[in-house]
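Database export, one record per block. Field names are fixed; values are copied verbatim from the stored entry.
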Amino acid sequence: MSRVRCERCLRPENHCLCALIPQLDSRTRVLLLQHPSEVNHALNTARFAALGLANAELRVGEVFEDLPRLLERPGYQAKLLFPADDAQPLQAYTAAPGDLPLLLVVPDGTWRKARKLLYLNPLLAALPRVTLGEGAVSRYRLRKAPEAGALSTVEAIVQALETLEAPASFAALLRPFEALIEGQIRAMGEETFLRNHEKNRPAVPGD
């Protein structure tokens, strides 16, 4: 028999993380487009981000027929957080009259699934792209990053918002993410974790 799940965070009820999810305001609007394969993933960080931000929306699917409506937000400029040769690094908002806040569109899935979302939604692929600054290190200690600077979805959103809306802090969004990781470490045992994960962890300045 399957375990009863919290209807909000989708975690098993005895491991519900809702108490750790903040409710933060942001000038930026975040639109998360989640591939269906991520919905039941143990580390569904896109959902944590959507629940923790008042100005965010999470949509699940492969083809988003209402994408034109989702992108038409008066007072915002839509940009896709996804790498490309012509992607522009995110920068803090200025006080200039024409500097509109972003509608930051964030695909959620493996790199392969995220690219599929772009392929199936040409309007999404046509958006101007932005990227994060270099040097980010993921806190997801249970998985080796596929490449330097690779982050979970919620980590990427936190870094993006803290860049755009400096000096505001959005670190509270990471609380359920970090609690989930700590719970997984406790479940496997500290000794097993240290033996199988920490020995392969690269040195980070300031550790």
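Remark 1: The longest helix spans residues 175-188.
Remark 2: Helices lie at 45-52, 67-71, 111-120, 122-125, 153-164, 175-188, 190-196.
End of record.
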